Amino acid sequence: MDLTALLENKIALVTGSSRGIGKEIAHLFAKNGANVILHGIIEDHCQETAQDIKKITGITPLIIAADISDYSQIDQMFRDIFKKFKRLDLLVNNAGVLEDRLIGMISADNIDKIFSVNTFGTLHCLQLAARLMRKSTAPSIINLSSIIGIEGAVGQTAYAASKAAVIGITKSAAKELGPQGIRVNALAPGLIETDMIKHLSENKVAAHLENTPLGRLGLPEEVAKAALFLASDLSSFVTGQTIQVDGGLRV
Ligand SMILES: NC(=O)c1ccc[n+]([C@@H]2O[C@H](COP(=O)([O-])OP(=O)(O)OC[C@H]3O[C@@H](n4cnc5c(N)ncnc54)[C@H](OP(=O)(O)O)[C@@H]3O)[C@@H](O)[C@H]2O)c1
Q: Where is the Ketoreductase domain (predicted)?
């Protein structure tokens, strides 16, 4: 098996691939031969990722701009993918938002925003992708949950709920789509060095590291390697699972 071409000829959509974990997943998928479709709220956000991928593959990837909290924009994104490629092999539901609020301070707007991106956006993309995956030979869907969706965290009740729901979506979809050959798995990262965690206080990060046997934050490329496993034939008999990429936090 050629371990640098694990995704040869696969058409892959990585949502939220303008930066952070999504950007690294898009890179690694492209390095492994996938034809990656980049996605962000606006096209300009993905230009840097697109240029980096062009350096690796010689091909400028398609960028689709869509607000994942808006169903009509998601629907249009999948229509565009169908028009250009006629099928989809891989979907990484990575776009996500985090807003910390203590109980009593969580507004209806906070809940709407967090759930519409992290949970409803994931579910809408999964449904629309499943239709385009009928013509795929080894389709795989990877949903980004979080260790917070399993363990919970102070100040992150709404986020935790939105990410716990992603695990429920993953298990149900794995059961329902398995007979069609579509595998559905989730990743639950611990703290990963991206923009998303920049607002966390030193004390909060230090407390997290104390409970992390590997004693450091994770890197976006370390989550990408787990996504590559779930996207490729290396995990051909794995579905409905949530893999923690957290340095041993829950051990
Ligand atoms: N970092 C961590 O410690 C950590 C831990 C566990 C789980 N996760 C999960 O991993 C995923 C990636 O996180 P990250 O740390 O890489 O985050 P990030 O650096 O903040 O990047 C978030 C990505 O999501 C996109 N996005 C956000 N809202 C969107 C919307 N309404 N419509 C379309 N795209 C939207 C952003 O696009 P724009 O650039 O266009 O804004 C960006 O590409 C998220 O689902 C997150 O919850 C992260």
A: 10-190
